[in-house]
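Handover notes (outgoing to incoming on-call)

Open items:
1. adenine deaminase: sequence verified, structure written out, both below. Nothing else pending on this one.
2. Nothing else urgent.
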Amino acid sequence: MLEQRYRWKNKHIREHVSVIDGKLSPTILLQNARYLNQVLRKWITANIWIYEDRIVYVGEKLPENTGNCEIIDCKGQLLVPGYIEPHAHPFHLYNPHSLARYASQFGTTTLINDNMALVLQLDKKKAFSLMRELRNIPTTMYWWCRFDSQTEILDEVDTFSHANVKSWLEHDAVLQGGELTGWPKLVDGDDLMLHWIQESKRMRKKIEGHFPGASEKTLAKMTLFGADCDHEAISGKEVYDRLMQGYMVSLRHSSIRPDLPVLLDEIHELGIEHYDRFIFNTDGSSASFYEQGIIDNMIRIAIEKGVPVVDAYNMATINVARYYNLEYLHGNIATGRVANINFLSDEKNPTPVSVLAKGKWVKRDEENVDVYEEINWETHGLEPLKIDWDLTNDDMQFSMPFGIQMESSVITKPYSISIDVNHDELPNTHDECFFMLIDKEGNWRTNTVLKGFANDLPGLASSFTNTGDIVLIGKNKNEMMRAFRRLKEIGGGIVFSENEEIVLEVQLPLNGVMSDKKVEELIIDEKKLSSYLVERGYRFNDPVYSLLFFTSTHLPYIRVTQQGMYDVMNKMVLFPTIMR
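adenine deaminase structure tokens:
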């Protein structure tokens, strides 16, 4: 549990009241501030007093005591609350700290984060210690509690034991259960998962769905089970169906599904004109996708698509806060709230020129103010992979009767292998590659053929997968092994080998799944990676997500998991892993 049970201790609240009484000076005074008042639904002018990380007064009065106060005249600017990202996957090569730092520059000052990487990569004690340290950064960090691994792991019963899930649910930084990628198990009678949902509800916490393509009947069932929100609508009709079943609808705009413009057009065509049941999310997009912004970009799109300005900002702020029962802390500029404030040059340009996060300047007059202290990752159990085993020629035998065919960045289907794979190298005249998933501890492997990923890729090794196990892909077995050896040397990452040399790598020293670089640097690395793969025949829109999701069973149709080749629709292992 966190060391501090309450957001502010009693002594802090007494200090806040003392500012009102003139006994203490505010730390920041925003004078003549024209801000968005979401109760009145209009822009009004007031003076805003801030003491450390809290807004202590909003109104016409000025403080009696300004002895230790930074006074800012806000004429010519518009103020809105800091934006909230309710569906962050903070381990998409970047890490929770680097994403928070980067997002703050675009005005997103609160992240509600997936805990999957923490559950799969760290023991509970280490995970909670990291969450405790992240509480001290300017960005406000909340978390989910997953109920399943989103794949078929060997020790799922232990990793997602009742004791572990209960500890996560009881954590005061955890706001919701889910997302429910394992909902078919729930429908099939998994009463333990239903119990966890019940516990979430008892604690007044939300349940996030994951229902792509769900019928009206399924949506109704999931509402009865306890789902509160879903982010998987890809059409106006699917948005409408979710609203009809009582859902909060999280509108997505991500690197895999950049759907927001179409969703808004189709919502308007259906005559939906009220926005109180909508929030925004970017669903863990690739780093390069975030070059155009985070939640601020979604506000901009909404305004361009005819959403009233106040509603567009509300969908990024107060709607989220109300949904999570956090309105007393976040989502509006009012007395008592955390001092997360964005300063805009124009109401139709939601990318801020200045940003306050927990009362600290993180951006000032378009310039980054870096107040995010570095983290010692190794103290929390996030360190370079230590691989003390080697691949052998025996490992490079491919005799599976069927392989994996890519239909999109993340959808894979089975197909019958018709080529001769009994060679050390495959020709570039087709788009089939050798594919191997191998245990990061070296205990097991699954070998098959991957069709549709690339037609001229000599060798790739990646520890960036859902489980942290290692994927090898390529036309040339020797180049694949060379890439693997380099991956061992750097302690994890994504490595490409050709012509007997390493030509490109993205180092991921945090357990092989996350970088310790700033997002701005990672964007450069990711673009190089994507360009290289496109040159080698990759034809989809997000190769990083492809690598992540080869092992993920929440999407159809065939996956390679720790248990073997897995049929998602029939929930069965088709070919088990081979022990080494």
